[in-house]
Amino acid sequence: MKINPEYITRGREPFFEIARKYANLAGQILDVGCGDGAFARYLGRDDIFLVDGNPETITALRPRYKNCYLATLPQLPFGSVTFDLIHISHVIEHLPPAMVYDLLKECDRCLKAGGFLVVSAPLLNSNFYDDLSHLKPYNPFTIEKYLCLGNPRCATRPLISSAYRVVERATRYNQVTTAQFWFVINAFITRLITGLAQLVRRLLRAVRIFKIQETGFTLVLKKGVVENAP
Fold this sequence. Notes:
By secondary structure, the protein is α/β, with parallel strands linked by helices. The protein contains seven helices and seven strands; from the N terminus they run αβαβαββαβαβααβ. The protein has one domain (5-174, 215-223): Vaccinia Virus protein VP39 (Rossmann fold), CATH 3.40.50. The protein has helices at residues 13-23, 38-43, 55-61, 97-110, 140-147, 179-192, 194-207, and strands spanning 29-32, 49-52, 68-70, 83-89, 111-122, 164-177, 210-223. Strands 3-2-1-4-5-7-6 form a seven-stranded mixed sheet, with helices on both faces. α6 (179-192) packs antiparallel against α7 (194-207). The chain is globular.
């Protein structure tokens, strides 16, 4: 499997760049769970719509961004068929399954046909539950199941749509030291001679032996028109 080295990172910028490719094609853009406005700053646009549940966040953003809205997810305070792109970065992992489902329904309601839905979220990894606000990891195939042509017999809730198709799917990675290897070597060398152990420890720290761990994803879906729609 070929891994893009830019995606071995803890930063969000490479994944903002994925979204920007489609944002450049869009008119009205909505950023759900905008936080400090990092995505808007990355785009260099002050006309996108920002939604967050923290009133202090919205107050801080309003001097620069006119389209700031305080909202309690999963509801979105907008009319139907409003946006050409909806961006959701590191939000769904803070929500229980029922709210994620309702948020996807709201995004589908607010997104125009031909528009893009871009979702980024962490996957289950060794550091996922270090953040106490993380409730549950979701993989991209869960979103695809309910918005693309999923199998209704394998779904616990009604499918939301079959009008979407996957445009792009990217995986974030992180480098994790192979602790098992380190402890085995260190214990063996320590038994031989302490000085040699210290030397090997320094060399291993300098060389650093890594494994790759999947830590997140960015999923881009494009909304089409359901053929049997009235």
